[in-house]
Write a structure and sequence with these properties.
single chain; about 300 residues; alpha+beta; Ribosomal Protein S5, domain 2; Alpha-Beta Plaits; 11 strands; about 40% helix; binds (3R)-3-hydroxy-3-methyl-5-(phosphonooxy)pentanoic acid; mevalonate kinase activity; ATP-binding; mevalonate kinase; lipid metabolism
Length: about 300
């Protein structure tokens, strides 16, 4: 019995969210501790089946929130000229949904990879990105392509809308704590809120965006110089401006405050904001464990710790 497996990880925006919408750079990195996995087999009854956390049954009667996956399946079979036999697709994911961790992109990447492996076909990065971006447009209305890129790659990226993404290694000693606030992130609303603020306070928002862009550029240098203290400082400054842009909220700020008070080198929201996740930085793993504990006390539902340095 032939089986195809596919996998993808979640992602974190280290710095530069929101400013990236206005063509400033952002740094995003893979987060391998939360993953999406897909498994493809030949369907036994000749009908297309899908099994996931949200739905288990025939693909044709799947609810709308699986339209993105349906699209990914269709496009993969089409673009890669695979036979259209009925398949059974099982999806497992440990990535919390709607937290700015790239859950929908990761699931789509895993499904495309699993189908390709099932048919023993090579799929190019360009094909994979094209297919998953189409699925992302269905899931989110629009996409910057950042989630597709980072969930399907082992590299971190310096990402700018108008430029080719620049992969780079996070060769820096330090630990990142990711904390899920338990609140649904509201990327769409937050992006719209910033756009409206820009109409009211054009000069201020313009300057905030440019400043965040400068912080990101400095953060890239700090990473290259293995300066975790400088990176932490820049993350905190970045959050100050996100707060001014009104995309944080009380829950996120309490968790971020707890990280600062516990001695984190820096802390900020990550992703769209108005809920979702926050990140903080420490120099050692022991410190990270303590900071994570304090972030939980302040309301975080779940925390993960990971070394920034990628193997
Ligand atoms: O919430 P996420 O991880 O999808 O990140 C959104 C990042 C924004 O800069 C706010 C929006 C965007 O499309 O880049």
């Amino acid at each position: 019995n032939k089986i195809g497996y596919g996998e993808a990880h979640s992602k974190i925006i280290l710095m530069g969210e929101h400013a990236v919408v206005y063509d400033y750079p952002a740094i995003a990195m893979p987060f391998p501790k939360a993953k999406a996995q897909a498994q493809v087999t030949l369907s036994e009854d000749g009908l297309f089946h899908i099994h996931s956390r949200v739905y288990s049954g025939l693909l044709e009667s799947a609810p709308e929130n699986l339209d993105n996956i349906r699209k990914a399946i269709e496009l993969t079979l089409q673009i890669c000229q695979m036979p259209t036999e009925a398949l059974g697709i099982r999806i497992d994911s440990s990535i919390p949904e709607a937290r700015g961790m790239g859950s929908s992109a990761a699931v789509a990447v895993a499904v495309v990879r699993a189908i390709a492996q099932f048919y023993q076909q090579e799929i190019t990065d360009n094909q994979l990105h094209f297919i998953v971006n189409q699925a992302e447009v269905i899931a989110h209305g629009s996409t910057s392509g950042l989630d597709t890129l980072v969930t399907s790659s082992t590299d971190a990226f310096l990402y700018r809308k108008s430029k080719q993404p620049l992969p780079f290694k996070l060769n820096i000693d330090g630990f990142l704590i990711l904390a899920d606030s338990g609140q649904i992130g509201q990327t769409k609303e937050a992006v719209e809120k910033v756009r409206q603020l820009k109409e009211k306070k054009a000069a201020f928002v313009k300057e905030a965006m440019a400043t965040i862009g400068d912080f990101v550029a400095q953060a890239k240098v700090a990473i290259e110089y293995n300066d975790i203290y400088e990176l932490g400082r820049l993350m905190t400054y970045n959050h100050y401006y996100l707060n001014q842009l009104e995309v944080s909220n009380q829950t996120l700020d309490s968790i971020i405050n707890a990280a600062w008070m516990a001695g984190a080198l820096g802390a900020k929201l990550t992703g769209g904001g108005l809920g979702g996740c926050v990140i903080s930085l420490t120099e050692t793993k022991e410190k990270a464990t303590y900071v994570a504990h304090k972030m939980k006390e302040a309301g975080a539902q779940k925390t993960w710790i990971l070394p920034l340095r990628q193997s």
